[in-house]
Amino acid sequence: MTDTGFPAALKDWRRRRRMSQLDLGLTSDVSARHISFLETGRARPSRSMVLRLCETLDVPRPARNTLLNAAGFAPAYRSRDLDTPDMDSVRHALVWTLDRHDPYPALALDRHWTLVRLNRAATRLLSAVGLSAGDSLLQALLDPNGLPTAVVNWPDVAHHLCVRLRTESAHYGGDTLLEEAATILAETAEPVPTPPSAPLPAIVSTRYRLGDIELALFSTLAQFGTAEDMTLAELKIELLFPEDEATRLALEQIAEADP
Residue 182 belongs to a domain with what CATH number? Predict the structure, then answer.
């Protein structure tokens, strides 16, 4: 990569985060003049300066490695498989979290929504639409004959999925796969009225139809807050909860019938 690589990349990330040189300087305790010199190539950053600016700009780990390389430094972040020995404690925490959530569905997703891990309830739920660990949840959502056919309130759900995909893409500084998926989903999404004609619900649940059973579920998302590994930093844990008593009882009965 040429010497102009880092200056251009720094300017690009600053603009993506909608920060001025003054904003970036004040937040990272660096003069705006020095930020200007870094972006024009008049000054060369130290390794610690690259990492400090990346932290301020919330640059994802893979892109931080790219910026380090552009500045002439070795990468700082690795990408480990969850099954490697030095990830034992992380893997245990992940499995513990998913298993303890049963009989409610819980799953782990990577950056592009590949199903990494499922608990037993999520396995039962998703196997009904032909999905299992290793499959792409994103592709299933984009298939009009796939997962959307099992979602009763699909237009509402599609709208919120679009927002989530675009938010995640923005965090990564732009992700073509996530953006394209959001564009496709937008074609079937239900727009939110502005201003709303009636108060919006506290939360939008996803209503799954499984044979004669309808399950109303809402989700929460969790991530490892101190992750420095690239794989771990992009891993999302999604925990689904019943919205109503009928769904809670149905999930418990399904679990009892499949010990």
Answer: 3.30.450.180
